[in-house]
Write a structure and sequence with these properties.
Length: about 80
Amino acid sequence: MSTESAALLNEVLALPTEERAEIVAELLASLDDAGASEDSRELDAIWAAELSRRSQQLTSGAVQTEPWDDVVRRVSEGCRAR
């Protein structure tokens, strides 16, 4: 990282959280735009279809959710058992 970039980063880190979040969103969007290609658009469409499928499963009751704390506990117990 250049000296100029490091100085800019320090300035940004001194900003309030909300302003830093806005900057992060803009930076990420600029990266997405730069890499937009046919493959990334196809991947976006695949993910959109998957999200729609999962949403329909939840709405219809075809799948059941599990409380996050239960998932974390089960995974932790599984890791300890190894």
